[in-house]
Amino acid sequence: xxxxxxxxxxxxxxxxxSDVLSAWRGFRPLATDPHAPPGAPVSREHVVSRNPKTGVFxxxxxxxxxxxxxxxxxxxxxxxxxxxxQNSPSRTLTMPLIGAEGYTNTLPLKLxxxxxxxxxxxEHLAKTYVVCLSLL
Length: 136
Fold this sequence. Notes:
This protein is mostly helical and 136 residues long. It has two domains: 25-94, no CATH class; 96-136, no CATH class. It has helices at 2-9, 67-82, 107-115, 119-128, 130-133; strands spanning 47-50, 57-60. Strands 1-2 form a two-stranded antiparallel ribbon. Strand 1 (47-50) and strand 2 (57-60) form a beta hairpin. The longest helix has 16 residues, at 67-82. It starts with a helix and ends with a helix.
C-alpha cells in the first residue's frame, strides 16, 4: 500500500509505514444480469435474490457505504416472500451499529486526559475502537 501511494505521489511527498494508522480490504462480488448481452457492464448496485432450490436469500454486489440500504432491502424481501407481517417500518437507519454503544462526543477528550495521548490519536481510537474503549 505504501509503495503504491508513493508511486502516485511522486518524490515531493513520501508516505512512511508509520504514517498509516489502519487499513482493511475486502472482496465484493458484483452482480451480473444473466439475461444481459455478452460484454454488458457489470452493475455496482446490489441485488437481493433467493435460491429457488434451497429458499436461501442472499445479497450480491453493492457498496460498503450502502450496507444499511442492502440490509433493509434484504429484510423487506424476506418478509414479503414469507408473508411475515411487517408491524413497523424498518429501523435500519436509526439502529446503532455494533460497537457504537458507549460512544459519546467526550470520549476522545477522556482518552487525552486519562492516557496523555494526542487529540488526533484519541479521535482515531474513539471512532475506530469505541466498543473496546468503553470497557476501560
